[in-house]
Amino acid sequence: MIHILVVEDDVKLNQIVCTYLNDSGFQAKGCLSANEAYEEMYNNLYELIISDIMMPEIDGFEFAQTVREVNKTIPILFMSAKDDLPSKQKGFQLGIDDYMVKPIELDELLLHVRALLRRANIEMERKITIGNLELDADGMSATLGGEEISLTTREFNIIYKLLSYPKKTFSRAQLMDEFWGVDSETSLRAVDVYVTKLRDKLSACDGFKIVTVRGLGYKVVLT
Predict the structure, then answer these.
(1) Which residue, among 53, 49, 58, 61, has the nearest Cα to 81 in the 3D structure?
(2) What is the SS3 assignment for 180?
(3) What is the DSSP letter of 105?
(4) Whether the Cβ atoms of residue 34 and residue 61 lie closer than 8 Å to each other
(5) Average pLDDT score, the chain
(6) How far is CA 123 from CA 16, 48, 114, in A?
């Protein structure tokens, strides 16, 4: 199932959008502020973000910019009452993918969401099968040759991320920011430790290998 993060400080609108998306076959989670959204994204995987612009403390522009610094690919849809061209230009310059002006039609929102997911090549089924390994993001489970293997939540999230974008290099800092949090005081060496553990646990996998990109980070290469 596709997980969508809705960042909107209007409680009623947030609930309406989440309920509609859930009824349409998605798993939507509402956050009332950017800080709440950051915390949610550090602990869970999301395939798409819907965000307001005018929010207290951290507005949608700053939020989108921060997300783009650590995640270059997740689709971001602005849903805002700001209908002026400069706001739209700023949003797209910061890296958003789509922009809808309030009040929105929920049926139209659904069309935009599906189009964004389609362009991002994100499938409704959150399962990855490569060789003899299968990852199920909804159940947070991994099986190797039909036998379940034990992965911690962080180990699962890291390998799921790498396998979702084969051949794409993720820096240690990117992985640290996404799965430990930007405020974490943990050394970047922690990423190396987790990758070593993953290589050990997945040594019998026959469909890919985790490659070290010297001076940068890691990527998955299909075999």
Answers:
(1) 53
(2) coil
(3) P
(4) no
(5) 90
(6) 24, 12, 10
DSSP 106-156: HHHHHHHHHHHHHHTT--SS-EEEETTEEEETTTTEEEETTEEE---HHHH
Between CA 136 and CA 183 the distance in angstroms is 29
Sequence length of the chain is: 223
Alpha-carbon span 118 to 65, nearest angstrom: 23
> Averaging pLDDT over each range in 107-116, 124-133, 179-188, which range is the top one?
107-116
Estimate to the nearest angstrom the gap between the alpha carbon of 90 and the chain centroid: 22
> pTM of the prediction?
0.59
Based on its alpha-carbon atoms, the radius of gyration of the chain, rounded to whole angstroms, reads 18
Contact 124, 1 (CB under 8 A): yes
Six token digits for residue 168: 């794409």
As a 3-state breakdown, the chain gives helix, strand, coil percent values, each rounded to 5, of 40, 25, 35
Q: Which residues contact 151 (CB under 8 A, 6 or more apart)?
A: 142, 159, 198, 201
